[in-house]
Batch of 3 targets.
Target 1
Amino acid sequence: MMKLGRPSWLQTRDAARSAGGLVLLVLAWDLALYLSAAPLLPRPWQVVLGLAELLTRGVLLKHIAASLFRVTWGFLLAVGLAIPLGFALGWNARAGRALGPFVQFLRPISPLAWIPIAILWFGVGDPPAVFIIFLASLTPLVLTAMNAVRNVPAVYVNAGQNFGLGTRELFLRILLPASLPDLLAGLRLTLGIAWLVVVAAEMIAVNSGLGFLIVDSRNAGNRYDLVVAGMVLIGLIGLLLDWTISRLARGFLRGRDMIGDTP
Amino acid sequence: MSSVATARLLPAEETTPAPCADTRPVKLRVTGVSVSFRMEGVQRTVLEGINLECREGEFICLLGPSGCGKSTLLNVIGGFLTPTQGQVLIDGQPVTGPDPRRIFVFQERGVFPWLTVEGNIGFGLQHLPAEQRRQRIAHYVEMVGLRGFERAYPSELSGGMKQRLEVARALAVNPDMLYLDESFGALDYITRHTMRRELLRLWTTEKKTILFVTHDIDESVQLADRVVVMSARPGRIQRVVDIDLPHPRDISAPRYLQYRDELLDELGVAHKV
Amino acid sequence: MRPSRKTLETLLLPTLTGLLLLLLWHGAVRLSKTTTFPTPWQVLRGMEELASQGRLTGYIRDSIHRVVTGYLLAVAVGLPAGLFMGLHAPTARVLGPVIQLLRPISPLAWIPVSIILFGVANTATVFLIFLASLFPLTLAAMNAVRSVPAIYLRAGQNFGLGRVALLRRVILPAALPYALTGLRLSFGIAWLVVVAAEMIGVDSGLGYLIIDARNAGKRYDLVVAGILLIGSIGLGLDVLMRRLERARSVRWAYHRET
């Protein structure tokens, strides 16, 4: 969060430093390639040309839209299943003990490892890709919701019960709003993961998406300028998604003590 | 009220027979309540053999050092904790859980940070029609002096305002008993004073039965009809002191100071610092 | 009586759930009459086959070795870098956005780059694991330092500590618990990318097992065996890392109010 009353020249200086860091990255990249003369890796300006080529061929937006479509569906399906499940596991200690270890067990398994199974069950195309993203978001979301409920201070639950709330009302009026900050932080992190996995998911014989762009550009003629263009796009869109969801979270939590916000 | 300056000093076992002067019906009866639980392998008794009776409209302070189990007792009475032994009856009915007719006021940390002042006060009023609810909220906003802050969130309020908000949230559902657990403990000296005066005013106008947990001797002498002094490890009732002083109480009057000294002695606190 | 019943439940309930899940899995395979997807029994036999060929322990050892090497390299670079960024705000301003931009890029996307830099070899695999854990680790170390309350710093300065003493006696101990949590989480990420990393021309490891078992003859029993092994080893490593959080010097931060 921006510190209150920070003088504007300081803010300008901070912005300049941040921009400077990115410029430095690009310069270092260019210099390294200039010196090493690696034949295949593209220089920054080649990547820009590559992006322009994608734009003029009209496939740039198609790839972006396809990736966003798959991430959105996989992520939303995971949210729909994981939040109620996580709440139940966090609220009912016995259910948590029974199923918790299995959620922990699924977590370290790479989404990539599921690819053979995704293909077996869903064939090729969008469904297996959505399934992979769904699986990758599911376990972190269940754990987030579970911990969010467990961290709700007992005072709030006691107060709610004191006012005579039943289980359903307790969920809607106490547990949900009280765990919202943790929940939103977890949603933000998980959306990052879902986006991270898009490349893996799009390795499965689909013919669009930024992941496909990267894999295809390499396989079809070693177009490394397009490979890096795809990486830059993924990075930028990931950043944008993160920024958007943190703005949304801020809107939801207006008036409350803010949750931690990385600059 | 008698003007004789004597406190009725009773040992714990003699609290059950009611004083004959008081004809108000018994509101709360605690019989033989003990609480113990295992902590890190050791069985610990927090409360032992608690007997207590409270009449309708009475203001009782539970006074004792930290760790004497007074909060535990209040939680048992509030229905948040089941005693290992004994029973709590309110209006002749056993307490089995929390109940909106009896509201627990936590320290200011009990207000809901996700609701505005209006939202917090209206929390227990969902069943009322909108217009009636609005009036009720406005009434209590006014009563606890939060006008102009209706749309503010708790994070924008001072400690005293949050405390008043929590009291207003409790009063808004018109409970017949209020339980306060060191509710003014986190406030500064001046705000604490004002809050006590406010609480006494609400107590006289709204005719509530109040149980108030505190470790502050002055607070108990200023507020209570009766002070229940508790001892620690295990928590027992050490003595019950009737405070026979009319309200408003003069905190520099000799009789006030006499009660205060007595309680200081009872808790074994030296009179000199 | 109560606590012992609870411990019993913590063991018994997951075991029962596990058996139930195995039964469901078995039943589902039987009912659907699939021939490609294996039953739990077939997976067990697959693991037996791997063990008898000596591949099982070899693969596990190779995967763990790669992950630990890549991760330790990331710790060596990321921990000091993150600590420095936490202490020195201008550096954080310069490097922060760079890290944020690089972080959302999947390790998979780096595969072509990694191959060009290191060729098709073990080094490329280790490099991918290094890269994947580097960014989260750096950010965690930075945030750990930043989360040290200003009053501790003031108290330290009040007692006359110089810059180095302040770092050693106040900032590092106060940041340690949060840094440890960050270390554990990024180790989880390192283990997570082992499959991606082992897709590059290595011929051992659990990630290789999964890819190879599918490509060479659709041995789905070995695919599922690989998945289960990765899950349980990951879980075991996480439990080991959690042990660190119980050390006396950091336990204060994990104590929760009751």
Target 2
Amino acid sequence: MMQKIKKIKKPLAVIGILFLLLFPVIITSSYYLHVMILAGIYVVLSLSLNLITGYTGQLCLGHAAFFGIGAYAGALLMVNVHMNFFFALICSFIISGIFGLLLGIPALRLRGDYLAIVTLGFGEIVHLVFVNWTELTNGPMGIRSIPGPSLFGIELDGNQEFYYLILIITALVLFLLNRLVNSGFGMAMQTIKADEIAAESIGIYPVKYKLIAFILSSGLAGLAGCFYASYISYISPTTFVYNTSVTILAMVVLGGLGSLTGSVIGGVVLTLLPEVLRSISDYRMIFFGALMIIMMIFKPEGFWGVSKRVKNIYKIKAGGAQNERDYESR
Amino acid sequence: MFVQQLINGITVGGIYALIALGYTMVYGILKIVNFAHGDVFMIGGFMGLILAQTTNLPIWIAYPLAMLITALIGVLIERICYRPIRLHGADALAILISALGVSIFLENFAQLVWGTETHAYVQKIQRTAYNIAGITLSNIQIGVIVLCIILMIVLYLVVNKTKMGMAMRATSQSITSAQLMGINTEKVIALTFGVGSALACVAGILVGTYYDAVYPLIGYSYGLKAFAAAILGGIGSVPGAMLGGFLLGIVETLGAGYISTGYRDAFAFGILILVLLFRPSGLLGKKHVDKV
Amino acid sequence: MSEIMRADNVSMIFGGLTAVDNISLTMEDNEILSLIGPNGAGKTTFFNMLTGVYQPTFGTITFYGENITKLKPYERVAKGISRTFQNIRLFSSMTTLENLLVAHPKCNSENIGRVLLGGKKLKKARQEIVEECEEILEIVGLKDKEDELATNLSYGKQRLLEIGRALATNPKLVLLDEPGAGMNSMEKEELSTLIRYITQKMDKKVLLIEHDMRFVMGISDRILVLDHGELIANGKPEEIQQNQMVIEAYLGKGMTDEE
């Protein structure tokens, strides 16, 4: 079984990449292109949440707040200062990351379940600020006419351009996060999820790793927010609410806590599903709630969780060649 | 003015305390934050409303029945959504996510069934207001305070004076040791969820009667505040939850009255963050020491 | 002989309970030191103060002349103290080799920038880490299980893996909390050999807690006996065997004294 999967894995990946590259050519419906762009944004969001929740084991219920901070930061910079989209993207990464740092320093010292409550409250506060600080955010009316990206004077604000942009961003994020989690740093993060006392006993200072993971996670959510603002060209506080945080968490849980591939698939599937099956759209949140329960009972590692591993994370072997073994998780 | 605010604060504080007890009891035994508890409170409120409205039962039958049904729902939630994960030996994160799932499910299910709007509550008791030396006090308010205090005394006696209470306390010390002593810990856990949910149902009915309103998202804000109360008192401590509830209610009402009504909800949350940062064990909680 | 570690008047009080009462001791170079005592004597509590899990209520702990009383566990690892646990705490979803890799100071402190950039240099550095860890696996006898998930190892092998993980932090002093618990006599024999190898060939100091008298008597150069949080005896194995207080602590006082 495992062997079979391994054999078809490569061709499958090639076909997948080709499909993604040619998607706008094959499927000309602008609606599906729109859905795919949204899926790309959600993939970045769920990848980033996976870093702190899936790999480091710290439940964060305020991810929509960082998404929102990035969106507002990006929008305000592009609208008020006429900053170029690409600079705004970097700035929103940094600004969201700084908020992550400020929240993380006190909150990450707490036990895991308290962190969930604190981040939940943070999300509420940020939402309230979006609504009430009208001088800056224009309140419930939101910010309109956010410009699209342009590069050397060429406007890139067509849907196809946005599609390829988010494809590149997602690929880059995936590539870098893959390096990060498969490193000594990544292993250290996972020891914190597994057992903090054991982690400390081998010289790992949990707060440091949690903080870095949290900053990267919130920064990436902010980056996704900036892209979102530019793409939709209009943002309002209603997008950045508790339900959005829950949706992102559902994507991570479905794909697998601690699996990057899982986050990609979870993000795509849970964005497409309510769009394709319009009838379930009203029951979306019920479905996400039930999904979390069912996954935790029957498949806590998610559908693409660490079910098979061949070598150590470094993928290095020093001594004599050994037969590779596959491990199936029970 | 001050005394008036104080009494109003005690009224709402008693309700917070009733909900906080459910958080604290479950935490004491399983060391998990039962995210769904606020929504169980909401379901309890609706159960009381539906039973009293549609069946024409007198409230002294309808309300205890609502408590029973809510207790059963609480036990079922533990049974279906937490126990399998617990017995798998999975980490706390998995139970936490499952609890969050239950909370989201209940909130959205309730919106589907009962709509998002606010429902007026059945008023089977004639509301009369008394005026004593410039302080207004309604019979419902007195009822709320008296009932909260009676329930807390009963719970305190059950936990500290009965055999079942002793089993509960033993289980909260160590599940494994309690099992070795012949305690049916699964029964204790189910009972804890049942009692906590029944108390939440009472709180739901009281809120409904006192404010004449219940709505599907009511559990979110009340749940968060009651959790703040449980933390303030020291999570895991039954007297702590009571103290925390009353204190939070009083601070919130005084704050809204003297500082700003707009920031009413911010007080609870501010207290929560301050306590977590400076005294995570709360006022009456024990300092947590990890066993190695 | 030089001094490795010393505890001065160390006490630990939980609420009203004195778990460890005013213990002073010195650990000298070139000795395997053992801590024994009946259940609840305060051995593990004392151990946890040495490793930094608990901060002593009173007293100071010095390591190579440096006061480490207030240091956290991870800071003590950097100073050269590592440990194993009485109830095994491996990273069960990681492989045997990964459990060692992550403990290696060069691995868990990998620079994020370098990680993201990748490159040959990083790969070479990792190659070295892997080789060092595999060497340790060879020593603890788990080389052939390096790609096995830790959770799939037998109980005795998991204990060995924990020792390996402790060694991977490159410590000066290794604290072993009941390393032989749950092992059969043959495994214990191998454990003795391993501990001697660690002290003699790898030049690490070892302090251990153990229940098995025969095992302790065979391996220790010096034994400390704790009872009710107090140090009741301190000496060579032969002396301890003869010590009246130790015998009483373990077997209870004579029949005549019993009520």
Target 3
Amino acid sequence: MQAGSAKSSQTLSAESANIVELKNISKSFPGVIANRDISLQVARATIHAIVGENGAGKSTLMKILYGLHQPDSGTISVNGYVTQFKSPSEAIAAGVGMVHQHFMLADNLTVLENIILGSEPTKIGVLSLGDARKQVKEIATSIGVEIDLDLPISELGVGQRQRVEILKVLFRGAEILVLDEPTAVLVPQEVDELFTNLRKLVATGTTIIFISHKLDEVLAVSDEITVIRQGSTVATVLPKSVDRLKLAEMMVGSDLPSHGKRTTKVGATIQLAAHNLTVLGKDNKNPVQNVSFNVAEGEIVGIAGVDGNGQFELCEALLGLVASQGTIEISGTDVSKLSIRERLKKGLAYIPFDRQREGLMLGASLWENSLLGHEQQLSRGPMIDLAAAKNSCREIIERFGVTTPNELVPAFVLSGGNQQKLVVGRNLATAPKILIAAHPTRGIDVGAQAAVWEEIRRSRDAGMSVLLVSADLEEVLGLSDRILVMFDGEIAAELDPKSATPQILGKYMTGTR
Amino acid sequence: MITKSKNSRLLMFVVGALAVISSVRLWTGQDALTSSSTIGTALRLTVPILLAGMAGLWAERCGVLNIGIEGMMIFGTWFGAWGAWQSGPWVGLVLAILGGMLGGLIHAVATVRFNIDQVISGVVINLLAFFGVRYLSDLVYVGKPGGGISQSPPQKWALPRFNLPILSGGEVAGWKSPDVLGRLETNRWFIIGDFGGITRGLTSDLSWATVIAIAVVPLSAWLLWRTRFGLRLRSSGESPVAAESLGIKVNHLRYYGLLISGGLAGLAGGTLSIVASSYYRQGQTAGRGFIGLATMIFGNWRPSGVLTGAMLFGYAEGIKLVASDSITALFLFIAAVSVMFFVLAVLRRKRTQIFVALGVFVLSAVAYRTIDTVPESLTQSLPYVVTIVVLATANQRLRPPAMAGVPFRPGEPH
Amino acid sequence: MSTKPASQRNFDALQKSLVTFGSSLSAIAFALVICGLLLLVTGKDPFAAYGKILETGLSGDKLLEMLKRATPLIFSATAVAIGFKMNLFNIGVEGQYLFAALIAAEMGTRVSLPRPLHILFILIVAMIAGAAWASIAALLKIHRGINEVISTIMLNYIALSVIQWMFETFFRDDSDGGLNVKTTEIAPSGRMPDLVDDRLNGMLIVALLIVILYWFVIFRSRFGFQLRASGLNPIAARTAGIPANRMVLIAMILSGAIAGLVAMPAVIGDVYAYGPSAIATQFGFAGIAVALLGRNHPVGIVGAALLFGFLDSTSAELQLSGIPSSIVKVIQAIIVLVVVIVNEASSRRFNRRTAERAALALKSLDTQ
């Protein structure tokens, strides 16, 4: 075995029918335990699905198998050899290939160039493009993929790019193919095509590990399913022995979230409304299509959905970051022609999807970060009122429990949860009329999560309208007064959180009818 | 099939352009438009721009902006002239390349090893080169006959020049071959006379350095698109993260790319101080490093495009030197070409192209009727204006290496 | 959630500036060692050279010259720094100030005003001309998405052509038989008074005022905060409602306006006219160096400009004592390169240490 480059002991494990065995893998990052004592056996030439909610630890586990992370404890064996991959190249040498959710392709290079890059067939340094073309064609035909090898990647659609990634891994001779959420970016026809390709691939003897949270697909395509929840394995089951409901229950746990009983009433006045909102896409497909909804005073409307179904674009359109058609009303006045700043002035606040990308200046101090967006209020004439700005930051730190030495440290020293508390605090401190909260608790620990939820509830009780965008069902069910499910750019359903279950939500979120 | 139709289209295009310029020549009586002396001068002026453009191309293809080409060229002019003065032109050219590579190495250490901003490094290299060679001149050239703080002593030897045998009357083993193209040129017939003038300009009184410089274009194209080294180098400029994930040592390739870039810039400088003249002079590069950068953009980061751009800028400079009163005839040429584009655009029903062609026609026609002499000072800025116009109008169609200019730290999460 | 007492926080801030200053200083020392080796290799005694630089530079009249030479650098570096503060690289200061010099010198001869107003008029014209030229790059960036690095480089050369053409065709003063390669001289009412007769003119005061204004606007004003935010994280700034395009335009206009003043010490303080050889070039690039060395901080900019001015002031004496004066410029270039490299490395280290220290501080908070 080529795995010899890695530290591999020569002990042959007993059950070598399994091509991959992970035993008691644990891995923690500062503040988060990603994997807790996970074990996994994958049989040769099968499709093995790993399902779990966002943040359940699926990706971390696969990154460990691919050598991107090293486990804190536990063993990995591939092909019967206990091994340890210090880098992806060692994993590749051992026959493990990974297709990332975010493709690693060079846009301006051709399909062929991307596929052969790094293991080019050459004669004295000169590319043997003819040989390469023939080899790639052979692999492509064997799994039923048709693709023009001379097109630059930039001219391919998402589905084709994914196929290039798969070919790239197979060209390197991978026997084990890890696919991280391969269907998240595909439209249904492309998903079908992908599955046809994968079946053919398995027929040639390749093993596929397939990460997903779309249960229908998992049931349709896999030979075995391992369910992961909160960093631990729940069970490994056969698709025949379970159905969607059972699987969903295993995934989210049987204990349903307690509905935060609200004592206040939803007000009567509509504070935020959208009518036939459409965001035009680059291709023929619009990321947001004819979306209408309204949010009343003191109401939390949850927008549930799997990432990439138009929620991001919807928020950008509401805020004015992208152009849109249709109308957006704040307190009854049409704001769709107004600038971002003018909309914010009318009482809109936004907790962005990605706090580091869209919310924070990591290199700047906390008080400057909390000042961002509130310069107008915290100024005296044209000058910033430094004392007031720092004071307001200290108040946010105090009220939202941001753990930090002081308000002068740069934002990058804070943990993710505290960064998020700062962003949430910045947006709630000024008591906005309307809050658009996108994944307000993604990637933060349980304590911080509870704190953020509590603050949102408190502001709601004070009359704030909230549009809560989330893929976390517990969050959506626990906070919302009404739930809209977004799928493929449209509102697929409107549900009452009191009667909705994760299963029903999951059904609409995955587009099954 | 594809290549055949491509070739025939190219041929049609060349013949069409010849016909237009020939008509313009006969109409205006400006024989200098296509005379072999104009073309020869243009070729000589093309060479340094071409090499500077290729220097930019190599750097950006591996993912590093090179604002320091001008400085690397300055190193080339100085070290080239010094070597040529000491031990002959060939040694000079080698030292010019090495001098440029020194600049490339500094750029690589600063931007690849220490990850500082690529623009900053380039700017500093320009300053360093400008004053560094002044310091060296002060030490080496001052007090020598013909030398001084801003000038080297003249070189004793020059690189050999030759005419192509049979076509342009070159000598083969002492036999003076006929000058076929020369005869074609002197009759000044429609198209044929122009063809003779242009080809004779390209094949007579050639310096070996020119031949080497032109050879850089196909050689670079071959290296970059046909070898493993080239593919990996390009991948470092297109997507270093993807390249690294496939086990490619991005930073090593960036070192190589910048050394080649520096070497080409140095050679560009060397041709200025050894071929185009016979001594080093302060300010000899005269912003050609930046024209090279402009040429690279104009050429869409492709060797053939860089060649085209360099020839265009070289021709514009050449005709100004040989026959500055011919420049106005060029307006007529541009007007005629825009008419052709207008017809094509109408046939293809591309509305914006129709308007652009029409606009260019009106402008150039008016310019031809009203302007008698174009001020020298304004024609100098042609390459820069063209570059901004190209960037402003064709931005969508340009394909710069995706990650050129973005610092890359190996082994960090992305 | 306790916060540190104010004295502790001041101490932190002080420590940070000390670290910054210290690393810059050691970088300069290291650069001097490299230059010393260069001198040694080329057969010159580095100790003699540095000795000479110190000896001449510290003499009284050279200190005046240092101030004089630092003045245009302060303008130029401030102009560059404004761009840097929002991640805009204005390489075009060179073209902007030369263009402004010609326009201001010419316009200055076309009006007759009493003294302070005449001077003010010329300065304002220079700022408008510089801003106008700089705004071309801003508009190209906003409307056509052209990177300002490329456009300002190209615009530098276009500026040189346009200036030459305008000067030769319209503005050249041929009154004394074409010998005078300058524009008409500005009337005495438009000339900046000297601080020290014939040695140092009042533009130094203007430069210092501009630096103070720069500090207030960039570090204390609301607009400055928005500008810095756009530089630190353009997406977050836009999400917070700061209009990105308008910030690019305003930043570039401000940068160009200050760039317009670079040649004013010469135009209204020395030459009283524009002339192709009378107005020194290269200040635009030197300004980039000074801004980098001074880390875009007002105090740093003034300090770095004084250092460059100090080195420049010694070049004549150096040449006389047998050491090529251009070594001064080489020293400057190497200092900048080393300082930028050291800054990059030390800021990464400092960030790591800050993160570690913050983590430690939090641990101790937890255990209390």
